[in-house]
Request: fold
Amino acid sequence: MTSPYKEKRIRLFNEDCLKTMRIIPDNSIDLILTDPPYNISKYSTGNIELPNRSALNNDIANWDLVELDPKDFIEDFKRILKPTGNIFIFTSYNMIGKWHDVFDSEFDTFQYFIWHKTNPAPKIYKNGFLNSCEMIACMWNKGHTWNFSTQNEMHNFFESPICMGKERLKNPKHPAQKPIKLLEHLIKIASNENDIVFDPFMGVASTAIAALNLNRMFAGCEIDETYYYASINRIKNHLYNNKKFPNINSPEVVKEETENYMSTFDW
Reply:
């Protein structure tokens, strides 16, 4: 295993989150905010051919082929979450029922939240609805953290564009990168400053950037090595005012960077 990457308010792990969660202390996480695979590959028909232009990329990443079972996560999610904590899980139409079946009876409340994408991929042939909405399964117990100030903020609905421009990583390009604006909205509602936000399916660390912007701590896992090193580099450049650091792209460099670092975390 690659040595965990440590900054003062950060822990990053390059391994399966089910393994990482074994070392996380009981009742230590304030918010689990994550975007696991949707397992929609079996429904994909591949790239979409368009008249007089290049095909629309509709490829699904290989990691989506691995079947995800919510039952694998319930025990550790409950153990590491504080009594005041919240869980937000991005999901899709084919998975929302599976998360509900496992988690609904284990928490006082199970709700869903909708992200409406204002710029979804077009359907040139107008042969169906645009895929403009994604669901987020939300779980909590009585006494959970909740930071609403107005009724308008309490809608289970948020509009924003998908990642574009400078925010979108080009190399590597993650097909499911979520916008910082959306993640910040959820983090503000469901946690407080200096809380620990945990993302067991970190991708390219968008949740980490949103958490740091809001003065939270962050812990995350990413099993894909390419995305993991991209996350480290993205966080370093973010923390240090976009100074140009040499890319971290090997276990040896991670170990050298972190082995003598004093951290706010105690794990």
